[in-house]
Write a structure and sequence with these properties.
Rossmann fold, seven-stranded parallel beta sheet, globular
């Protein structure tokens, strides 16, 4: 006669328990979903955004105890935000800002400079202010795009602007080590930043048809990658571009 054994249930420990995650641009879209995931993994989350009302609503939904409403492109406001943070912090994700599209020949020089420098300048300013407060092994995550992997009609300056991000973040990773720096390159995803395209069924369907997965991205597709990059599972990964586009850039 044999006796049956009763399996002992195992419970996974939250991967970010007790850690502090800053999400710059966290009131909507990918930033908001990343904050939700981070909270589910036990992190204390601090949200920032430009719209105070939307930020307050997002914080209430997530149970995030602290927010800061300011324009991340305002260098003085960004500096004040980091100066007021309790130290140390663990992870900073930047999702503020978005790509600029349009024919190159229709853009003036000021628009070109802004489109090319937006992500790089913001990433540099965040790094400059965060480095002294971020624990060794913590992370800086930057959000780019897949436009730099292939040039196409309608992308305009976006291809050049996103192509700059991988070498920029690799160089930044060298200077910030042992803080880890990785950029995420998302494919098309319906967020407030892409509302115009998402509202056009024909354009949205055409983009989905060019992926291997057969659909456009959802904010949670990228939030999961962002939390993974902040987790112990990726502790040996830095300076690397993570492309998440359903295979769009290689079709």
């Amino acid at each position: 006669m044999t006796s049956a054994t009763t399996p002992v249930p195992t419970q996974r420990e939250p991967e970010l328990a007790g850690q502090t995650v800053i999400v710059i641009g966290g009131s909507a879209g990918i930033g908001f979903e990343t904050a939700r995931r981070a909270r589910a993994e036990g992190a204390d989350v601090i949200l920032t955004g430009r719209n105070p009302d939307r930020l307050k609503q997002a914080a209430a939904e997530l149970g995030a105890p602290r927010t800061a409403a300011f324009d991340a492109n305002d260098a003085a406001a960004l500096k004040r935000f980091f100066e007021d943070l309790p130290a140390p912090i663990d992870h900073v994700m930047v999702t503020a800002g978005g790509p600029t599209y349009g024919p190159l020949l229709e853009m003036d020089s000021a628009q070109v400079r802004q489109a090319i420098s937006d992500h790089v300048v913001l990433g540099l300013e965040v790094a400059r202010n965060a480095v002294g407060k971020t624990r060794p092994g913590g992370t800086l995550l930057l959000m780019g795009g897949t436009g730099g992997r292939r040039v196409g009609h309608g992308l305009g300056i976006a291809s050049a602007a996103t192509a700059m991000l991988p070498p920029f973040t690799a160089a930044l990773a060298l200077e910030l080590a042992p803080v880890r720096v990785n950029p995420i390159a998302p494919g098309f995803v319906a967020t407030p930043l892409t509302a115009e395209v998402a509202a056009d069924p024909a354009r949205s369907a055409a983009l989905a048809a060019r992926t291997m997965i057969g659909r456009n991205g959802e904010p949670d597709d990228f939030a999961g990658i962002a939390v993974f990059l902040a987790s112990p599972a990726s502790a040996y990964l830095t300076g690397q571009l993570i492309c998440v586009d359903g295979g769009f850039s290689v079709t």
